[in-house]
């Protein structure tokens, strides 16, 4: 097997399964995964799907909690959404698209620790449909989503001079405005000030959600909105909902945003220290196409730096767990058990510790304890798949990227289980 198809599946996808076909044109194969209307993960039957259903389930759980009956809907929604995503990741032929979904979900971080009901819906409704579309459209969809409005406390943010602010003495919350500027769009490199953060927070006052909202749950509460025009980074925006939409459209197409996004994309797909020439190329594609993420994703797979040298990125725990389960051809129901593995390895699904998301640099994941836990977990997986020939599996999932030393160590192993563990915990399997 040539190295290019393996690199395509490992670096851009979620890892090879032994039975996966070998594409003759790896770049074209990756491009095909950006087509619209590819199937999404199938959710368990009976799970609330719409935002109205989810918000209604949340109300029911609050009533159950007051009656000391627990939170049955919370567990069902959270576990069902997570298990469906992981099960799909284990078996999907569209690894590049799923990696992009995960990348943008981490870029727009929310956590089940604070918004347990709605993270899965955010990924389904606001991120997945836009991974090959315009960044500004994704930004608007995510910012209006109840998950983000609740996670960053904008749902109750009230303009000091609004009708509600004067009557109830409620205050302004700057969390969402600050994180949009710092993390989601232009980054501090754009040179915005604290006054810009405050002004942008006023632009977003009244942005809330509820059961009577639109199809996504969004509500604009005019009575909580700060009146008058506002200026953000030298740009004036009118009052009302339209002012907020204009601000997001402008930030979503800002040159500093494109530079920030290009740097993060190249860091994720190429190297911890992003090569400047690669960043410049992706930034130019975004600039020339008005933020077309599909165009940027196609350009990524054509960066020479993305193919050589291979295996420059350490797999995060999430990457590693999915790659191992794909390599041993785990069944879909392993998605539910994978949630426990991710917690054990330090990267629980949809539960990053802060709004800047999970780190994307190897040094943050290379601590000895974390690597030892990977070995312990992989050894348990090997026990369930010990009938597999380790050398055959290495050839099928790593091809020429598997080192001779790994094959020699596996051949000398005392058991099939030990041989398989040696392959699954080899330095090359830990990298992508």
Automatic annotation (TrEMBL):
**Protein name listed in UniProt:** DUF1800 domain-containing protein
Query: Which InterPro entries does the annotation name?
Result: DUF1800
A Pfam family assignment: DUF1800
